[in-house]
């Protein structure tokens, strides 16, 4: 079994830990976090280090694979590049009860939670979190550093640009483009394109 390190010891760290519990190929050797008080959140006896000490631990134990487990897209992207530039291979993981159709491709540091379904000819970028029971329709394009909340539902040919966040339980009409850094609120129903950096909420979704 190959050892990996996980940066992010909060709730997202425990989600990674849960998915990894089904994986017979990898095991978590250590967590890292900028806030060491989060040691109370992680479970088991997995050690927790700050970033500098985590790098040293990885070097001493010849660990070269990592996962970023951070909710904020911007913060996750920052750490993603720090670890990638330090030479770590960024691992993607898929819950065994997720459904990945044919002709689906995804990048590195992609976390696909339980019950998520990705339909054919969809493309997922790097450093993306797909929450539980999300439905990604056919021919979707999801960019880098994106977060999709649980139970979100995308029609066909949806485009989600880099750094966007899609709220839990939201619905997106086929063919809609969600602009870079946009935020779709919880339960929103998006029937037209969302401009970059815009937050939309409601049914139908409107900017605020």
Strand and helix map with partners:
Layout: E1 2-7, H1 11-20, E2 26-32, E3 48-49, H2 51-60, E4 65-68, H3 73-85, E5 89-90, E6 93-94, E7 99-100, E8 105-106, E9 111-112, E10 117-118, E11 123-124, E12 129-130, E13 135-136, E14 141-142, E15 147-148, E16 153-154, E17 159-160, E18 165-166, E19 171-172, E20 177-178, E21 183-184, E22 189-190, E23 199-201, E24 206-207
Parallel strand pairs: 1-2, 1-4, 2-3, 4-5, 6-9, 7-10, 8-11, 9-12, 10-13, 11-14, 12-15, 14-17, 15-18, 16-19, 17-20, 18-21, 19-22, 21-23
Antiparallel strand pairs: 23-24
* Assembly state of the chains shown: single chain
Low-confidence spans: pLDDT under 50, at least 5 residues?
Answer: none
In N-to-C order, the SSE pattern is: EHEEHEHEEEEEEEEEEEEEEEEEEEE
CATH class placement of the largest domain: Mainly Beta
User: What percent strand?
Assistant: 25-35%
The end-to-end span amounts to 49 Å
Major sheet details:
8 strands, mixed
The average pLDDT is 95
CATH topology of the largest domain: UDP N-Acetylglucosamine Acyltransferase, domain 1
What's the structural domain tally?
Answer: 2
Strand line-up in the sheet with most strands: 6-9-12-15-18-21-23-24
Number of strands: 24
Shape: globular
* Helix and strand composition category: alpha/beta
Radius of gyration: 17 Å
Fraction in helix: 10-25%
Treating each run of at least 4 consecutive H or I residues as one helix, how many helices? 3
The CATH architecture of the largest domain would be: 3 Solenoid
The CATH superfamily of the largest domain appears as Hexapeptide repeat proteins
């Amino acid at each position: 079994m190959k050892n990996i390190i996980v940066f992010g010891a909060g709730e997202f760290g425990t989600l990674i830990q849960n998915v990894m519990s089904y994986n017979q190929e990898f095991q978590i050797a250590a967590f890292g976090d900028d806030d060491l008080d989060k040691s109370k959140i992680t479970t088991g006896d997995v050690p927790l280090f700050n970033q500098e000490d985590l790098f040293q631990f990885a070097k001493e134990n010849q660990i070269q694979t990592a996962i970023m487990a951070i909710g904020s897209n911007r913060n996750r992207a920052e750490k993603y590049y720090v670890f990638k530039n330090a030479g770590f291979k960024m691992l993607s993981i898929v819950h065994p009860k997720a459904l990945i159709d044919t002709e689906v491709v995804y990048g590195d540091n992609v976390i696909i939670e339980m019950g998520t379904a990705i339909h054919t000819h969809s493309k997922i970028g790097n450093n993306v979190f797909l929450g539980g029971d999300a439905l990604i329709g056919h021919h979707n394009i999801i960019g880098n550093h994106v977060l999709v909340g649980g139970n979100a539902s995308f029609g066909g040919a949806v485009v989600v640009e880099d750094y966007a966040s899609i709220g839990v339980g939201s619905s997106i009409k086929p063919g809609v483009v969600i602009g870079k850094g946009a935020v779709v609120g919880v339960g929103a129903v998006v029937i037209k394109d969302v401009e970059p950096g815009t937050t939309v909420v409601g049914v139908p979704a409107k900017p605020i």
